[in-house]
Amino acid sequence: MNYQLLPLIGSPAQLKSLSDEQLLQVAGEIREALCEIVSDRPAHFASNLGVVELCLALHSVFDFSKDRLIWDTGHQIYPHKLITGRFPEFKSIRRKGGLMGYPNPVESEYDLFVTGHAGASVSTVMGLKAADDLLHPEQGRKSVAVIGDGALPSGVVFEAMNNAVELNQDLLVVLNDNKMGICPRVGGLGKYLDRARTASFYNGLKRDVSWLLNRLPVVGEPTEKLLSQVKDAVKGFLHGGMLFEELGFRYVGPVDGHDLVALREYLEMVKDVRGPVMLHVFTEKGHGFKPAAEDPVRFHTPVPFCRKDDDSVEYVKKASAPSYTDSVSDAIWSAMQRDSRVCVLTAAMCEGNKLQKIRDDYPDRFFDTGICEAHAVAFAGGMAKAGMRPIVDIYSTFLQRSFDHIFQEVSLQNLPVLFTLDRGGLCGPDGPTHHGVFDNTYMRTFPNIVVAAPGDDRDVRPMLDYLLTIDAPSSIRYPKTNVEVVQRDVAPIELGRSEVYRWGEDGHFVAFGAMFPDCVRAAERLRAEGLDVGVINARFLRPLDTDTLFKAIESGFVITVEESTLNGGFGSAVLEAANDAGLDTRLIRRLGIPDRYVEHGERQELLADLGLDVGGLVAAALASAARQSMARQAAE
């Protein structure tokens, strides 16, 4: 692609000098850059195609070198990156050491927060606005939050909007309405927005009508009732309910989000309006690239493809092995087929969690709550109390948003809700917002909950089936990677019991979760070097198999291995149990995610950096064996 204007834009300030025709050319070049990126790697695509004009309009009207802008969620940040001085680095996006696929303050002053989860934009922009008004009132900084209709139902959004009206902040919320999250949106609010799309343009007319009607003389009670009914009728005629104005926002819209010239005019119109304003912009996810517009779900993060001259695509063929997500989804489907009490709840992640077949085959037992994880967990608690066996299928990193409800509505009530935590571990190019590395720690804090992880694919189905039979809350975590199988006579799943793959003379790897196959490979390499290291597939973090673990600790060095944070994780649980039992813990070593946020990169690259690949495991075992030898010599 011969880019003519995009390479010349080092700052959004340069957009202000461009003609409308040149801005439209920039929009076209941005779309070409997006197509070029997805030709060789998975990247967020359809969502970025949909906000090109909106991004250009915002930066043409505001000066975000001093004004404030938060994108919610940040996977629609690519056009913003391209016009804020990062075009030369754009080809590095989502690669190790390159640009992050989300906003990143380290990269640019135009990125204020790393926004990978949905819903917090209004709250954070309000905080920025409050601080700016207190510290620098003379600067008159503007504050803008761009939020999608998929994120809008998140409870924190309405908490923030309620507070914004109370504070009467000068705040602009741009509602980017494309009728989608990753999948099509769900719920009553979505239906309301559908009605709003068909309404004529509205600019706070309710207030003007109310002013006029309130000027009429007050007469008796019947007349007051009549006037109230007239007001409601006029409001309904003008716009279907005016939800946002009833909350206290000045509503403007709906506006065509792909009419760049009109968008700039509307943004200029609302730029200096006092008080909180909602600008409703409707866009098309995948706009400008026909295949993505026709199938935005598939093109949300598509596999690499080549774009043909007729705008059709040819996918870059890669061998596709089943993933742990596929394996868990299949196991859930089978459980639902056997037991009519089993149901599934997810939070706008039907596609990501591979639940389409379950949704289609068991629609009455499939519940998509939208991006409302806290609600999903509390909802599941109610279902379990009434006798169902709910499975809450949510990414590990997103389940964090429902922490209090896991405590209050599930653990405290000791209800049989099964949490299936997808992306339990490093999420590769999605980076620190999506790495699911904290669940071992936060799940094990709660009484009653059984915390488990399959060591390989042969553990998945029997573990899920078993946990659906116990009368207690439970969780399974599994990574974003292809399944592996360790050939062995598989031990049956028993509560709180590990599986001994092989006892060792010198020491043991104790793997919690899908690091088990790498531990087996490392042990095989070590045996070739003369070191006899056994492998234990822990399977359970809570309750812990202390009998097996203590036997391993007393026989030699022990290395715990987990794709999770070391702080409070599986290794910590082993150390705590050994300490409580009065065992010598000096030869216990923990391997896992250190006390820092891990940046983006391919999963295997990140594991290698952290010493969690086979080479790192081998090195750790050799070091532990050396320490053990020195300790024994000193004892003699």
Q: Descriptors for this entry?
A:
single chain, 636 residues, alpha/beta, Rossmann fold, seven-stranded mixed sheet, six-stranded mixed sheet, 24 helices, 20 strands, globular
Task: Describe the fold and architecture.
This protein has 636 residues and is an alpha/beta fold. It folds into three domains: 6-196 and 253-302, Thiamin diphosphate (ThDP)-binding fold, Pyr/PP domains (Rossmann fold, 3-Layer(aba) Sandwich); 324-477, Rossmann fold (3-Layer(aba) Sandwich); 499-635, Rossmann fold (3-Layer(aba) Sandwich), CATH 3.40.50.920. It is built from 24 helices and 20 strands. The strands form four sheets. It has a seven-stranded mixed sheet, sandwiched between helices. Strands 1-2-3-6-5-4 form a six-stranded mixed sheet, sandwiched between helices. Strand 9 (342-346), helix 14 (356-361) and strand 10 (366-368) form a beta-alpha-beta unit. The longest helix is centred in the last third of the chain and has 22 residues, at 614-635. It is globular and about 80 Å long. Residues 205-220, 222-227 and 229-238 have low confidence and may be disordered.
Q: What's the overall average pLDDT, rounded?
A: 89
**CATH architectural arrangement of the largest domain:** 3-Layer(aba) Sandwich
Query: CATH superfamily membership of the largest domain, which one?
Result: Thiamin diphosphate (ThDP)-binding fold, Pyr/PP domains
Please tell me what the overall shape is. globular
CATH class of the largest domain: Alpha Beta
The largest sheet, given as strand count, sense and whether it forms a barrel, is: 7 strands, mixed
Write down the domain tally: 3
Cross-sheet strand order for the largest sheet: 10-9-11-12-14-13-18
Structural class: alpha/beta
**CATH topology group of the largest domain:** Rossmann fold
Strand content: 15-25%
